[in-house]
Amino acid sequence: MPELLSKYRAPETETCTQEISPESAGWKYVGFEVFELKAGEVLSQQTEDKEVCLVLVGGKANVKSKTLDLNNIGDRMSPFERKKPYAVYLPNDDEFTLTANTDVEVAVCKAPGKGGVKARLITPGDIGSESRGKGFNKRHVHNILPETEPADSLLVVEVYTDEGNTSSYPSHKHDQDNAPHETYLEETYYHRIDPPQGFVFQRVYTEDGEIDESMAAYNKDVVMVPKGYHPVATLAGYNSYYLNVMAGPDRRWCFVWEDAHNWVNSPAYGE
């Protein structure tokens, strides 16, 4: 089993700070990269056989593809402004060139493409938001690329969790191809922490004990979830943001709760 924690690589000579592929992760579907660009720097890629969702975590940029010519998109310099992001969806057999107008932090989310979905800009007005949980299990969600919006494989969401709260909790999993009860979805968590010297704890574990890892994820680290439960806990003084990418053979988010902790969803908690 590959390491589940990918540490941040400061962009001293290369702009790529995270680079996760199906080959490096030991799975089939999700690819995830992060680039930190200075104003004027350029990122170009071919999408090849993958669909891509570019998420502007922070900064403003121009983006060109075979069919798009987008100028100065982006409306936040940091995710902790808590504004909804700008994103760009690109199908397989496409290409893009992103030119940074300010310092830019961009996530490149990838999964198998099948064709038939057009490239498009995803604006803050296109992104739904919701609050989940109660008590010390509250979080706020921006649904960037949910299953209700067109794509082939990708599901993309960002989540805010305030200090001292848990998230992705009660523990849940989505590692069986058994819809509509449960779907198989690989998942990455790109963690950002405010203030940036902090960390969160994340545990990834299966019922049979094949995986049971607890990790301290620092600012800009990535946790990979090939299967199993995967809750996150924040610490006093530090707020959490994470960007989730999920993909699998069935583009539906169907999950099951861990029985032992499902009571936290009940009226008996947090009232």
UniProtKB/TrEMBL annotation:
Keywords: Isomerase. Pfam families: KduI. Transmembrane segments: none annotated. GO terms for molecular function: glucuronate isomerase activity. The keyword Isomerase applies. InterPro entries: Deoxy-glucuronate_isom_IolB, KduI/IolB_isomerase, RmlC-like_jellyroll, RmlC_Cupin_sf. The keyword Nucleotide-binding does not apply. GO terms for biological process: inositol catabolic process. This is 5-deoxy-glucuronate isomerase. It comes from Alteromonas confluentis.
